[in-house]
Design goal:
The chain is built from five helices and no strands. The protein is mostly helical. The chain has one domain. Helix 3 packs across helix 4 and helix 4 runs antiparallel to helix 5. The longest helix has 28 residues. It is globular, with a radius of gyration of 17 Å.
């Protein structure tokens, strides 16, 4: 339990270091470059979370649910995660429309939907295959 607490604090500290200290003053003016930056960051995030899931050191609620459901059903982790992501996006759009709120689902959300889950699922599957080969 102490290791997990330390891991979570360290994980948050690394994110804060990059967000506020290293890239804090970085301003990207060109829209296409912003999209590429979001895509690259999302890809790196997917790789990282995919590895963390396989090491089972830090548990994330949505990913943990998908891992457990994958064990109990015939559905893959990636399919389950995509389902949760799509339902969340549809709910967000529905709430925005019903209550005439600003629409917060934009291109970054859609980019993240495809790249993050795909990358995370790919890394998870790669590690699972590698574990089975080495076992």
């Amino acid at each position: 339990m102490q290791f997990r607490f330390f891991s979570v604090v360290l994980f948050g500290s690394v994110i804060n270091l990059f967000t506020y200290d290293i890239f804090g003053s970085l301003t990207i003016e060109h829209y296409a470059l912003r999209l590429v930056t979001v895509a690259v960051g999302t890809f790196i995030g997917g790789l990282s979370i995919g590895m963390i899931i396989n090491y089972n050191t830090i548990t994330f609620p949505i990913e943990s649910v998908c891992v457990e459901l994958e064990k109990k059903t015939r559905h893959s982790f990636t399919k389950l995660r995509y389902s949760i992501d799509i339902v969340s996006i549809v709910l967000s759009i529905a709430v925005s429309i019903v209550y005439t709120l600003p629409l917060y689902v934009r291109e970054g959300t859609i980019i993240s939907l495809f790249i993050f889950t795909f990358t995370m699922g790919y890394v998870k599957e790669l590690y699972t295959t590698k574990k089975n080969i080495l076992a």
